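2024-03-11 09:14:02 INFO worker-7 job=invfold-0412 stage=load source=structure_tokens
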């Protein structure tokens, strides 16, 4: 299961912690880092058991779960830039006057109004979440959709992909599996998305690649590696420096 699937399928409690527990390990829902149970991990001059070390990893790598979630694209959080800024200041423990001064808007009553509006948004979210949870118990025809990757630039109809559709697309265009070559480049957007996401499995998540290194990897998948590289960037699957000298997987 890809890390994006773990993230979207996690419970609210797991999302708040930022990690989930597997049989033999703890997995970071934010980046996929995994620490094995029963192992003692060093940090500085202190040794920690696995779960405590996972919490340290989140603090050191992501600052906090709150900051990571707040930094996600607005298409996933549903927040405007203005609301995200307010939440960041509230999280810092600033009072209404301090927030009003820092943002330079209205008065303290304006900030209280924004607090009320955010609270209303929370109530609506809870109600909707409860309805969706209840719906799962009754909707026997609901398809199993593949979760969009968190770095998607625009989530639209292209991402309405079921697990069954994904398997069919991969079988058609990558019949030898994720390590095989692409037979032809898919003509449809949804097919391209599935195939391109599968291609990212050839790349290591914590490594930077030079353009030459990336090209060499993509050549093993498809002859027109330049086109593949362009689409990987377009779909928000990889990123690069401004001069194109370094490429990496987006997480």
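2024-03-11 09:14:09 INFO worker-7 stage=emit residues=251
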């Amino acid at each position: 299961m890809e890390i994006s699937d773990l993230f979207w399928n996690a419970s609210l409690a797991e999302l708040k912690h930022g990690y989930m527990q597997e049989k033999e390990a703890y997995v970071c829902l934010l980046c996929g880092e995994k620490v094995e149970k029963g192992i003692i991990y060093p940090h500085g001059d202190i040794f920690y058991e696995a779960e405590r070390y996972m919490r340290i990893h989140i603090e050191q790598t992501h600052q906090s779960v709150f900051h990571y979630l707040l930094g996600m694209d607005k298409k996933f959080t549903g927040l405007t830039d203005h609301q995200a800024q307010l939440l960041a200041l509230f999280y810092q423990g600033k009072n209404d006057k301090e927030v009003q001064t820092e943002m330079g808007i209205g008065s303290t009553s304006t900030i209280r109004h924004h607090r009320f509006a955010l609270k209303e948004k929370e109530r609506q979210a809870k109600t909707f979440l409860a309805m969706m949870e209840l719906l799962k118990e009754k909707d026997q025809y609901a398809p199993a959709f593949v979760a969009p990757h968190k770095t998607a630039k625009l989530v639209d109809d292209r991402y309405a992909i079921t697990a069954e559709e994904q398997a069919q697309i991969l079988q058609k265009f990558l019949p030898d599996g994720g390590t095989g070559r692409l037979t032809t480049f898919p003509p449809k957007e949804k097919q391209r998305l599935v195939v391109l996401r599968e291609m990212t499995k050839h790349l290591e998540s914590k490594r930077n690649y030079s353009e030459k290194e990336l090209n060499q990897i993509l050549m093993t998948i498809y002859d027109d590696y330049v086109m593949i590289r362009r689409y990987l960037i377009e779909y928000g699957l990889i990123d690069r420096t401004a001069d194109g000298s370094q490429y990496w997987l987006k997480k």
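2024-03-11 09:14:09 INFO worker-7 stage=report msg="The chain is about 50% helix and 10% strand."
2024-03-11 09:14:10 INFO worker-7 job finished
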